[in-house]
Design a protein that fits this description.
By secondary structure, the chain is mainly alpha-helical. The protein has six helices and no strands. It is about 55% helix and about 0% strand. The termini are far apart.
């Protein structure tokens, strides 16, 4: 069985997993478009997101305060396995029903949030490490709407930066990045 969310996660996971696999150990200290996050920090954050949102799919509470180091033996392989588990968790139609007890918002929004993290942080890691990145266009279109919806609250909570204006003619990914406070020309815009 599959849902629209799991289908989007599956197509978005492939380019992000490829970026994670392409990160060399000597790149872990590099800066990223996420202010105050090195590549290592962002990898650990994204790993935690992928693991925690598996539990959120089945409406279990998660702990965000703990900051485990996921970058231990075979972390690239484990990231791929955990991403596959994430897709499977959101393939159950029940994952999209009701309100998340831990997040207090519709499960459909929670599913969109993990897709947003997978795509945007995939881009963050790609540009930080000099890799190509092309998320699926169908995901960026959906995520632009979600980022518009979540933007004001996300900015108040410090999750998004102030919007970066983008030209109407740029691709959807660039618009999405601008909505989250990222400059699509990073690192040139640093």
């Amino acid at each position: 069985m599959a849902t629209q969310t799991s289908d989007l996660l599956a197509t978005a996971a492939a380019p992000t997993v490829a970026v994670v696999r392409g990160i060399a150990d000597d790149q872990l200290a590099l800066p990223t478009p996420c202010q105050d996050y090195s590549v290592r920090d962002l990898l650990n954050h994204l790993f935690q997101v992928v693991v925690n949102f598996q539990d959120l799919a089945v409406k279990r509470s998660v702990e965000w305060a703990d900051k485990p180091d996921f970058l231990t033996d075979a972390w690239r392989d484990r990231f791929e396995v955990e991403t596959e588990r994430l897709v499977t968790a959101w393939a159950d139609p029940a994952s999209l029903e009701g309100v998340s007890p831990g997040m207090g918002m519709p499960q459909t929004t929670v599913g969109g949030m993990v897709l947003l993290d997978l795509v945007v942080h995939g881009w963050d890691l790609a540009v930080a490490t000099g890799q190509p990145y092309a998320p699926p266009p169908e995901a960026t279109t959906v995520l632009r709407e979600l980022a518009d919806q979540l933007g004001p609250t996300a900015r108040k909570m410090g999750v998004f930066g102030e919007p970066v204006p983008t030209d109407p003619a740029v691709p959807d990914l660039d618009h999405l990045l601008g909505l989250t406070g990222r400059h699509p020309a990073w690192p040139a815009a640093r």
